[in-house]
Design a protein that fits this description.
Blueprint: H1 29-32, E1 42-46, H2 52-59, E2 63-68, H3 71-84, E3 89-92, E4 106-112, H4 121-131, E5 132-143, H5 178-187, E6 190-196, E7 219-226
Parallel strand pairs: 1-2, 1-4, 2-3, 4-5
Antiparallel strand pairs: 5-7, 6-7
Length: 229
């Protein structure tokens, strides 16, 4: 039922690495402007996948630390950075184990579909809070909870799954309600300042496109700020 999206992409899809993308078939950072100017800033790309966003950030002048738990994805990210002739600091590590990053040293954290299969989000959010500087942003995107309750191949878009069903999906992704995400971020010392449920963009469609995306948001984007003391 669920069509999985990651920054590795649906089969046959490739993301451009000139602008940060939060998912397929939706507006990118140049339109959403959730990060702002990243030149000279230290950015953590959490769940970097094949490296498209990390490369886009580096091209914009950021000092990028890219982390992913997949050996294959890390290898692809390194190869992509070499082809793009940009410098990345790349780490193969679980997303909740960031001991190689000092506390209060990161200017922004980005995670585009990198946390979909993480069972313990609270642990990841605590690590993000530790490494971020106070009052700096954490921008993350995930499958929209509404998207996960329907079969995108069903032309009538009938509900196939309870919105509150927390059981992992067949591909390992962890469904969450918006309320769950808000509570987890609040517990980890974040204040949410923007929630985006983007309509599809007008550009070319990815191989994962389905007409259901015209009627339901496939992606949820949250921007949260680490609260200072």
């Amino acid at each position: 039922m669920h069509r999985r999206f990651t920054l590795a992409g649906p089969a046959g899809a490739e993301l451009a690495n000139d602008v940060v993308a939060y998912g397929f078939d939706i507006p990118r950072e140049d339109q959403l402007k959730l990060l702002g100017n990243v030149e000279g800033k230290r950015i953590l790309d959490l769940g970097c996948g094949a490296g498209s966003n990390a490369i886009a950030l580096a091209r914009a002048g950021a000092k990028v630390i890219a982390v992913d738990p997949s050996t294959e994805q890390i290898a692809e990210a390194r190869a992509a950075a070499d082809r793009a002739e940009v410098k990345l600091e790349v780490h193969h590590a679980p997303l909740a184990e960031l001991a190689f990053v000092r506390a209060d040293t990161i200017d922004a954290v980005v995670s585009a579909y990198g946390l979909t299969a993480v069972a313990d989000l609270d642990r990841v959010f605590r690590q993000v809070d530790r490494v971020l500087k106070p009052e700096c942003h954490f921008v993350l995107s995930l499958p929209h909870p509404a998207w996960l309750v329907v079969d995108p191949e069903d032309p009538e878009r009938r509900v196939q799954r309870s919105y509150w069903d927390a059981a992992p999906l067949a591909d390992g992704d962890q469904p969450r309600t918006i309320g769950n995400l808000v509570q987890s971020l609040t517990r980890a010392n974040f204040r949410i300042d923007n929630i985006v449920e983007p309509e599809p963009g007008n550009g070319p469609r990815s191989p994962g496109w389905t007409d259901a995306m015209r009627h339901l948001p496939a992606t949820l984007i949250i921007r949260a700020r680490k609260q200072g003391f």
